[in-house]
Write a structure and sequence with these properties.
Layout lengths: L24 H12 L2 H6 L2 H16 L4 E5 L1 H18 L5 E5 L17 H10 L7 E6 L5 H12 L3 E6 L5 H5 L2 E4 L14 H20 L16 H15 L3 H10 L4 H10 L3 H10 L4 H6 L3
Parallel strand pairs: 1-2, 1-3, 3-4, 4-5
Length: 300
């Protein structure tokens, strides 16, 4: 079946780059930079919709649900990338997941044909055991990818809250989803190469969705990532520096409380600021929904 791409701005030719193959390296770099600079401003226009999506994600995470990204090609890889960064950054386990059409192998080797299966998109959502506790974010620059359409349709049937992230207005996935985030970035420097501006826009939106949702469930203290998983030397040192910053103490004091806190900066900060043991720190955090600032300000 013929696919009509003419109406998609992501598929139109960019009038500023008609002579791209005749430009110098410097000229190519400058035009790419000029085009990229427009992307954050395009994202800004969708802040209201992004906010609504985050409100639902926070609610889902608080009730034991998940944030699940699904997409094909570049869009799918960006979703997986955002998801896999959450465990080391925020000590998540199952809470944020990324699914890509074609499975894990498609992350490192392009399998463009798999995006055409509406039915496989539905199967991938069913296989992920999506429920009404979850939020499913379908990502597609074009906004019409059959696999993503199938995934969002199935997710909605299962009662999940659905979000569409596209780079064309009035997108097909946007019409299916409960909320549409449609960042129209316009024609690409190379026609149809949506790994460029469209991909950058999607990355910015996903950064917002996961990061602000994690802030909303108590994964930070001030602007410190106090729930990080200290799994290597760099992250151990980062944890100690974080404790020093939060508690205004010296290195040795921070290191000592870090070792006593099961190597969890969040526990360590509460222990140090309140001069309490780990059991008391855990209790306060549990009773204050994991927010450090609430735990340290709790009345005795």
């Amino acid at each position: 079946m013929k696919v009509n791409l003419k109406q998609l701005t992501t598929e139109q030719r960019n009038p500023h780059t008609f002579s791209l193959d005749q430009m110098s390296i410097r000229e190519c770099l400058e035009i790419m930079n000029e085009e990229d600079c427009q992307v954050p401003l395009c994202v800004k226009k969708e802040i209201e919709h992004i906010e609504i999506a985050i409100q639902h994600i926070i609610s889902a995470l608080q009730r034991g649900g998940r944030l699940i990204y699904i997409g094909s090609g570049t869009s799918g890889r960006l979703g997986v990338l955002d998801a896999v960064e959450c465990p080391p950054t925020f000590s998540t386990t199952y809470e944020v997941q990324g699914l890509i059409a074609g499975g894990e192998t498609a992350f490192v080797k392009a399998q463009e044909g798999v995006e055409d299966s509406f039915d496989q998109g539905q199967k991938d959502i069913a296989h992920a055991h999506v429920t009404d506790k979850d939020v499913v974010v379908g990502i597609a620059a074009s906004g019409r990818t059959p696999h993503t359409l199938g995934a969002l349709t199935k997710a909605k049937d299962l009662g999940a809250y659905t979000v569409a992230v596209a780079c064309n207005h009035q997108s097909a996935i946007g019409k299916i989803a409960d909320i549409a985030i449609e960042v129209e970035t316009g024609p690409e420097v190379i026609t149809g190469s949506t790994r460029l501006k469209a991909g950058t826009a999607q990355k910015l939106v996903l950064n917002m969705l996961s990061t602000v949702s994690m802030i909303g469930i108590g994964k930070t203290y001030q602007n410190l990532m106090v729930d990080l998983h200290a799994s290597n030397e760099k992250l151990i040192e980062r944890s100690i520096q974080m404790i020093m910053e939060a508690c205004e103490c010296d290195y040795e004091s921070a290191r000592d409380v870090f070792l006593k806190s099961e190597q969890k900066p969040k526990y360590a900060i509460v222990m140090k600021l309140l001069n309490c043991n780990i059991e008391e720190a855990k209790r306060r955090l549990l009773e204050n929904k994991s927010f450090v600032y609430k735990a340290i300000n709790e009345k005795s």
